[in-house]
Fold this sequence. Notes:
By secondary structure, the protein is mainly α. The protein has nine helices and two strands, in the order αααααααββαα. Strand 1 and strand 2 form a beta hairpin. Helix 4 (71-93) packs across helix 5. The protein is globular and about 60 Å long.
Amino acid sequence: MSEKSGKMKVLTAGIIRDNPVLVLLLGTCPTLAVSTSATNALGMGAAATFVLIGSNIVISLLKNVIPNKVRIPCYIVVIAGFVTLVQMVLQAFVPALYDALGLFLPLIVVNCIILGRAEAFASKNTVIDSLLDAIGMGLGFTLALLFIGIVREVIGFGTIFGISLGENFQTVSIIGLAPGGFFVYGCIIALLNKLTKGKGVKRKSFDCESCTSCGACSQAKEGGCEK
């Protein structure tokens, strides 16, 4: 595998094959909570992507400095710094979105997607590879939230990005509530499974070559992965 194709594989892995929401099933709480509208979903996705990119870069830069015994607390401190920055920016310039996201904005600090990529990827790979991984995972997270948000807003409230679809548009209000969120989430996962013929949900093997991060993995480059 060439270096260029390896980096492209890292970048695109999070969009479908390793989508954090629809395949890895991470970040379910914010997904269900903020996907009641497309605007909220897009806002949460953008905020999480910014934090993911920033934390991945910093953690990759400091991976040889952070002591192994305190790596998780250090990761959380780095992530919390970027989350605080996002909070202040949204509160100052987009107060409506800040209020809509509410508690789930500061909870990005403990979002398992961000912490998981820091531990599983950024702490083991170069800055460039960590940046590509963050972009791919963030884009996959945002697209999944946006798709769920559009479906729930259209069916549940008869609007899209706050724009009414007309007084005669028939809505199903339960889709905008918690039970509807679980229903839409499950249906989209099933649809992805159907379209990818199961390849997006389960892998045939778990060896090094089947891993979507193999092209940029430091262990693979050093020959440390078991084939």
